[in-house]
Amino acid sequence: MIRLRQIALVASELEPVVGALCETFDLSVCHVDPGVGEFGLHNSLMVVGDQFLEVVSPTTDGTTAGRLLDKRGGDGGYMAIYEVDDLETRLQHLEANDVRIVWSGDFATIRGRHLHPRDTGGALVSVDQPEPSGSWAWAGPTWTPHGSSIVSAIAGVTIGAEDPAAMRDRWRDLDLATSVRFTPAGDRGEGLDGLDLVAVDRARAGEQHDIGGVLVTLV
After folding, report:
1. Which of 38, 148, 198, 203 could form a disulfide with 153 if both were Cys (CB 3.0 to 4.6 A apart)?
2. Which structural domain, as residue segments, surrounds residue 211?
3. Dist CA 8 CA 194 (whole Å)
4. Which of 8, 74, 84, 11 is nearest to 46 (CA)?
5. What sign has the CA pseudo-torsion 186, 188, 190, 194?
6. Secondary structure of the chain as H, E, C letters
7. 124-130 and 76-84: which strand pairing?
8. CA of residue 111 relative to chain centroid, distance
9. What CATH number has the domain bearing residue 127?
10. Cβ contact 26:44 at 8 Å
């Protein structure tokens, strides 16, 4: 099993982007994770059904997130995090396909591996196995599944690529292409450019909002 569980955006200033997401989509912050301080970041997470939107922002110089802000000229998409139930098998498959691990975390209720973005392309990807299945330690101890009056789930993401077909094939080979589509990269270069959220009111499907450098579409 593999499913898209969390999407992270990166912003030079945290609160304006978090506020815009909460106001536009009737969301609320469920957790602020002190653990991201390890990466020189601070963050906020919001529940969408049983999935999560996260915004991170650098608190120190020289972070991966900060370099991405500089490279792409501002706020944008940062990370796609997948829930899996077969982490060891997947890690063997990733290693066989020359994917390097840039961070490993093994905790009582979740294990995660961040993949080198140069080996996947398009975004920083993590594959994480929670215990029990369906739990999500990154969102803190008190979150409960719930939608908002406007959105009920994360449907997928759009990644801009210099060669969309080649990147799509690479992600498929790595069994990571779930809930992802690939389009030609724009002026900002390759990266996570779009986010699809399931609209509660089906009449609003197709509505779009540019928040934090990401085009959010209701589907």
Report:
1. 198
2. 2-134+142-218
3. 12
4. 8
5. negative
6. CEEEEEEEEECCCHHHHHHHHHHHHCCCEEECCHHHHHHCEEEEEEEEECEEEEEEEECCCCCHHHHHHHHHCCCEEEEEEEEECCHHHHHHHHHHCCCCEEEEEECCCEEEEEECHHHHCCCEEEEEEECCCCCCHHHCCCCCCECCCCEEEEEEEEEEECCHHHHHHHHHHCCCCCCEEEEECECCECEEEEEEEEECCHHHCCCEEEECCEEEEEC
7. parallel
8. 17
9. 3.10.180.10
10. no
* pTM for this model (two decimals): 0.96
Residue whose structure tokens are 């579409």 = 217
Q: Give residue 78's pLDDT.
A: 97
For residue 78, how many C-alpha atoms fall within 13 Å in the half-sphere facing its CB?
27
Give the tens place of pLDDT for each residue, 80-97: 999 999 999 999 999 999
Count how many domains the chain has: 1
pLDDT, residue 11, reads 98
Q: What is the pLDDT of residues 16-50, one digit of tens each?
A: 999 999 999 999 999 999 999 999 999 999 999 99
* Cα(212)–Cα(132) distance, integer angstroms: 33
Residue 3 has a CB neighbour count (10 Å cut-off) of 13
Evaluate if residue 147 carries a pLDDT over 90: no
pLDDT digits (tens, 9 = 90+) for 129-146: 999 999 999 999 999 999
CA-to-CA distance for 128 and 69, rounded, in angstroms?
25
**Matching residue, tokens 């905790």:** 107
Residue range 191-213: mean pLDDT, rounded: 98
